[in-house]
Amino acid sequence: MNWYLDVIKNKYFNFDGRARRQEYWMFTLFNIIAIVILAIIDSFFGKPILQGLYTLAIILPSLGVTVRRLHDTGRSGWWILIAFVPFIGGLILLVFTILDSQPGDNQYGANPKGA
Q1: Which pTM does this prediction carry?
Q2: Span 43-102, pLDDT tens digits
Q3: Phi and psi angles of residue 105, each rounded to the nearest 5 degrees, phi first
Q4: Cα 8 to Cα 55, 65, 93, distances in angstroms
């Protein structure tokens, strides 16, 4: 839960630096859990109001943590646009987010794993 809250509180609009796999995937996990819970609540009311508001509020932190994750693998944040390529784009982005960090420092900053 701390990974999720850290991205929301401290890195809401941060596209600089690097994000470890753990930060990215823990944020994604809690994000999915929140969306499922809000979808269940919205199903009782018949309109996806809460889920829509949550999605709007979480767009920037989601983009930020994804860009920082791409930076951690040594790629530009612009690689996020590959997700718009039908079928294969999302899979390529998934592979990029699964890959291990680039060892040592890179042009985006110090390795968040330490040394």
Answers
A1: 0.91
A2: 999 888 999 999 999 999 999 999 999 999 999 999 999 999 999 999 999 999 999 999
A3: -80, 150
A4: 13, 10, 22
Q: Which two tokens stand for residue 39?
A: 């979808």
Could you give the CA distance from residue 2 to residue 8 in angstroms, rounded to a whole number?
10
d(CA 21, CA 94): 12
Alpha-carbon Rg for the chain, nearest whole angstrom, is 15
Look up residue 36 and give its two tokens: 């499922």
**C-alpha of 41 from chain center:** 24
Alpha carbons within 13 A on the beta-carbon side of 44: 5
